[in-house]
Structures are given as structure tokens and as C-alpha cells.
Write a structure and sequence with these properties.
- There is one protein chain.
- The protein is α+β, with helices and mostly antiparallel strands and about 300 residues long.
- The protein folds into two domains: about 5-165, Probable tRNA modification gtpase trme, domain 1 (Gyrase A, domain 2), CATH 3.30.1360.120; about 180-290, Elongation Factor Tu (Ef-tu), domain 3, CATH 2.40.30.160.
- The protein contains seven helices and 17 strands.
- The strands form three sheets. It has a six-stranded mixed beta sheet, with helices on both faces. A six-stranded antiparallel beta barrel has the order 12-15-14-13-16-17.
- The longest helix has 11 residues, at about 165-175.
Amino acid sequence: MTQAVFAVLRDRAVLEVAGDDRVAFLQGLVSTDVETAGPGRALHAAFLTAQGKYLHDFFIAEFGGALVLDCEAARADDLRKRLSIYRLRAKATVEARPDLAVAAAFGEGALDALKLAAEPGAAAPLEGGVAFTDPRLAAAGARAILPAETAEAALAKAGLAQCEAAAYDRLRLELGLPDGSRDMVPEKSILLENGFEELNGVDWDKGCFLGQELTARTHYRGLVKKRLMPVAIDGEAPAPGTVVRLGDKEAGEMRSSADGLGLALLRLDAVEAAARDGAPLTADAARLTPRKPDWAAY
């Protein structure tokens, strides 16, 4: 993608966390340091089970005296309810904001058009909302949370051309970025298998958060044996959850895909063996060629 473009992400929704205790409330629940969020910085965070398994992930930005969460639309109410369980006496509210929309901006010049630094999480006000460089990876472009009625006009005014959301989906597949529950199974997936450490989704210095114990143990004991990684698909795209095989042995599972690209959760030893022996990874009738993303540390 060479042109600076934007796509409204209809599969995303916005929750607002407001009140005097909004930061302290989220700080004890999510995987990143909410105290560092502000008008100039946005974050990517995960909300886990007490056993350290994935439930939700979302982007956190600040504007209008509140924190706003860019999350999956289909699961936004579940996230709202789960967060609210922990509110107790905190002076904080968690409410849906259907008046706000989420967009992605990407391609050459997109960050410049939004006056954003090419630094993950860099944020700036934009037409009654906020825009921010993707906190995971600047190569993914920017995201914007804007009034729904004027979002398209605001982004066009900035000099961006509109495109379909499918174009953004292809970009994030090329980069190896998971897309919520499409790629991470709620109550089963582990953050570190899905790149959260390299993609700024876990802060090891912030103190306790829900599910921290398993996450930290996995990190410090080097227990990550699988990784979500991009795959080129030769053949019909396998459905999410399809078993990936190396010969007659299970090597992992397919996740989301589009246009001959996909993500798969693969055993690292199987990927290494496939490369060493020249043996193909397969899922149903398709052949998969895995690729290590530039940002990955495995």
C-alpha cells in the first residue's frame, strides 16, 4: 500500500471508562501500564482470566477527560460486563459509546497526514476525537476514534483516501498482527504465544494485574513453545481451527486468513523441522509456508 488511505472498521466499537478512579481501576486489571496513557500516548492492552488466559484485547486512548477502549464490536458488551464486575467501590464507570467510530489509517504518508510520530502509541487530538500510531507496530499505521457522524469527513480532510476494511485486514496479516478473538481463543490462548511482549502489550514493571502470575511464569521460564505467525497459503484457505500438520503429526492450528495470507498458531519445533527437512506444512489440502515477522524475537 503506497497511498495514504483510511478504512472505517465496522467490526470495532468503543467503550468509555470515566470517573476519578478510571486509571487505578484499569491498572489492576490489564496487562499494560495504564498510568502512562495520556493525550500524547495510547496503549494496547489485554484483559485475562485469573489463570492468565486471553479474554479480550483493546487499544486505550485518552480524550475528553476519559479513557476510551477500541475493542471488538461483537464482544464489546461482554467486555463491559466483565470489567464492571471488578468496579466495586471505585469511582469509575464503563459505558458503551455508539456515537464514536474506529478507523485505521495506513499507507505511505498516513502518519504524516495525521501529524503523528512514527513511534508506537504516539497520539494527538483529531476533529473531536483522537488519532494514534498503532501502539503495537508503527508499520501498521494509525488508528482514530472519532465522532461517527463526521469520522469519514475528518479523515478525508486530513488528506486520506477511503478504502475497504479488507485492505487493512491484508496489511495486518502481512505484518503478523492478531485480530482479537479471530486469532486468539478466549479462555485458552496465552499472550506470549501471540506476540504481546514484542508488540508492547505486556509491561513487566507495572506491578500486578489479573492473570499476571501465569504470564510472568511463562516469560521467565521460557515456556513459549508455539507462536502465531504469518503463513502464505497455497490452495483453498483452511477454516480457522483447522489442524496444521507436518507429515502425520500435528503442528498447530489455522487462524484468520484472506487473499492467500493467513495466521497460524504453530509449534516452533515443527516450523524448524519443516525448514530443515524441506517438508511442507499442510492444513486440509492447502500447503502453508510460515514466515517470521521482522518484529518477532523467537
